[in-house]
Amino acid sequence: MDATAQAGHPASATDAAPAVDIRLEGISKVYADGTVGVAELDLAFAAGELTVLVGPSGCGKTTTMKMINRLIEPTTGRILLGGEDVTRADPEQLRRRIGYVIQSIGLFPHQTVRTNVGTVPRLLGWDKDRIRTRVDELLATVGLDPAAHGDRYPAQLSGGQRQRAGVARALAADPPVLLVDEPFSAVDPVVRERLQSEFLRLQQAVRKTIVFVTHDIEEAVRIGDRIAVMSQGGRVEQYATPAELLGRPANDFVADFVGADRGLKRLAVTGIDPGDLERPPVVHVADGLADARSALEHAGARWAVVLDDQENLHGWLSADHAGGPGTVGSVARRMEAWVPADSSLKAAFATMLQHEAGWVAVLDGDRFLGVLTPESLHAALRRSVEGTVPETAGATLA
Ligand SMILES: Nc1ncnc2c1ncn2[C@@H]1O[C@H](COP(=O)(O)OP(=O)(O)OP(=O)(O)O)[C@@H](O)[C@H]1O
């Protein structure tokens, strides 16, 4: 949902609800048979952040999440929404302020996509035109064509399209809070990754307070601002950003859960810091080759970066070609291996491998900032554990 769509529709102006924080205080759930689903849990979810609850099967993730909208009534404790105690609020009213996305139940099968998405606005008594406008706006936002998909039934959509319709339905009344339960578990890995990216983009636009349950640590580090790793009984073993979790697991349980390949996973959540870049010799397109050669010899380097007269990246020059008359521009090679400065280390590494390059240039727009080599990449990763490297999208949505 983009801001212009909201602003351009006065009837929606009042429902652009600001995100609120959620606090669970001493919350427990003891089921009728005596099973302790969650015991004495204190957990806060920051306003506008995407928090992931992750942990092995049966650890209490779903119980925790469903206590927030009181689909499961807590046995003890308090739930605060934006500071307001909603532990005993009317559950129906409460749920209109809390969007809910689930994989299994999802959409009403005998209603069209439009009717499904308009469910909560109808309950809230919006007039028909306002609902129609809002629903079509939301369908477009989640990547469904209202004309093509709006009048279909859920069974006539693909799994990914159904999921998008589910997200649109949850967002329809612009609730400040969104609960999301394993939404992408039924789709194949490729679609799953695409839906995760779309979901992240959507969150960047809407900035809801999202509680997201998954058992998949890859998904958690990819999309979470913060992650709570839980063990049996809803015990929080660590509550941290993806980079902290992967870089400094609090104990053996977390280390096991995040996996032995956590160093690799960390590549995806660690951004490039300008301080990590190496600065090889730089020559310019118009320079004479003799000058370029002496610059290379002076630096003791085998290659140089070639910039144009605007200081933008042009390519690179090998010492083997820096001989004879002519200019650098006549023998410089194009530089295919480059990434934007806001990329993750993983993207930089993938680009290096894709082009079988020994280094990758880092650009801010067209401006050349420096290069990453396997050595500097490794150093950057090590430094990220010390918490000095900014994190990328998944970790810094807030
Ligand atoms: N209605 C119920 N009656 C009794 N025990 C229950 C009930 N619902 C859940 N439990 C138990 O509470 C514990 C936590 O369950 P919960 O569904 O919250 O776990 P989860 O972490 O979401 O698991 P999964 O990843 O498998 O969905 C489990 O031991 C489960 O068996």
From TrEMBL:
UniProtKB keywords: ATP-binding, CBS domain, Nucleotide-binding, Transport
Top-rank taxon: Bacteria
Gene3D superfamilies named among the record's database cross-references: P-loop containing nucleotide triphosphate hydrolases
Domain ABC transporter: 22-258
Entries under CDD domains matching the protein: ABC_OpuCA_Osmoprotection
Gene Ontology MF annotations: ATP binding
SMART domains the record matches: AAA
PROSITE patterns, sorted: ABC_TRANSPORTER_1, ABC_TRANSPORTER_2, CBS
One Pfam family in the UniProt entry: CBS
Domain CBS: 332-391
Statement: the UniProt record of this protein carries the keyword Nucleotide-binding: yes
Family of the protein in this entry: Belongs to the ABC transporter superfamily.
Protein name: Betaine/proline/choline family ABC transporter ATP-binding protein
Native organism: Blastococcus goldschmidtiae
Organism phylogeny: Bacteria, Bacillati, Actinomycetota, Actinomycetes, Geodermatophilales
